[in-house]
Amino acid sequence: MAEAAGARARFRAGLRVPTAGWAAGFAQANLIVLPQAAAGEFLLFARRNPGPCPLLDVTEPGRAVTRLAPGADLRTDLPAYRIWEHGRCVAEPGEITGYWRDDLVAFLTGCSFTFERALLAAGVPVRHLEQGTNVPMFRTDRRCRPAGRLAGPLVVSMRPVPAGLVATAAAVSARYPAAHGAPVHAGDPGELGITDLSRPDFGDPVLSHAGDVPVFWACGVTPQLALATAGLPLAITHAPGHMLITDVPDTDLTFADGPA
Asked: What's the CA gap between 8 and 246, in Å, rounded?
């Protein structure tokens, strides 16, 4: 756990970088923070959309700690956050202590960065790690099941995978349902309504190699678009690709049952 805690300490000190490849062997998590009055709606949204929103933990109102990393402070220990006001992202600070309130509830959901070490161990290259970039993420034309004010499209992350290893990548990631699980699609991005892989909606473009096939996984940025639709007076999330590094070994998330 020292490596995970050390990474969080560097982020707390002000380092702002995407967390892909950081603290290998430890699970990463998305962060969604909402007023208690909206927490029930998000809980229902997550239950109805477990692919992009695999719940790992839910905090008590006002508590900025999680069982996933008992020594962490959710207000300072991610490298970058997003502040949402009335459906608009108005700031991307490096810490959120000034925004914190006693009625805020934090949700932690699984992240596909968690299974990248397993992909590498199975011989599947991870191109954005090779290239030192953030993973590319795209809006799709698939709609999530709505819950109250929360509604919007599925967002996916994309990893180019050699054609002969697509089945391996799918089988490996399927063992991690708490980190989005198996891909939602492999092949033609047009089937998801994606028109240009060189222009992701979030993250960075990634260069494919000859023979690579684009493979798409449900992404934890999905709730951010649902929050934009909901227009809540306040919401806080991680910045895309800038996750909470937990103390949970990535192998513990292969068949997780959700929050305790």
From this structure: 9
Q: Please tell me the distance from the alpha carbon of residue 182 to that of residue 170, in angstroms, as a whole number.
A: 5
Nearest to 145 by CA among 220, 51, 234: 51
Interatomic CA distance for residues 175 and 198, integer angstroms: 29
pTM: 0.93
Amino acid at position 192, single letter: L
Tell me the pLDDT tens digit for each residue of 200-251: 999 999 999 999 999 999 999 999 999 999 999 999 999 999 999 999 999 8
**Number of CB atoms found within 10 A of residue 12's CB:** 17
Q: Which residues are CB-neighbours of 257 under 8 A, at least 6 positions away?
A: none
Alpha-carbon distance 258 to 76, whole Å? 24
Condensed to tens digits (0 to 9), the pLDDT of residues 116-132 reads 999 999 999 999 999 99
Q: What are phi and psi of 187, to 5 degrees?
A: 110, -140
Q: Residue 161: which of 151, 172, 169 has the closest Cα? A: 169
Number of Cβ within 10 Å of residue 71's Cβ equals 12
- Picking from 208, 210, 163, 206, the residue whose alpha carbon sits closest to that of residue 186 is 163
CA dihedral 41, 153, 78, 197 (to 10 degrees): 170
Closest C-alpha to 166, from 121, 211, 109: 211
DSSP string, 65-92: --TTSTT--TTTSSS-EEEEETTEEEE-
Gap between the Cα atoms of 218 and 50, Å rounded? 9
Identify residue 179 by its one-letter amino acid code: A
Distance CA 144, CA 219 (A): 12
Question: Which single residue is written with the structure tokens 């161990």?
Answer: 121
Distances (CA, A) of 112 to 75, 187, 207, 238: 22, 19, 19, 14
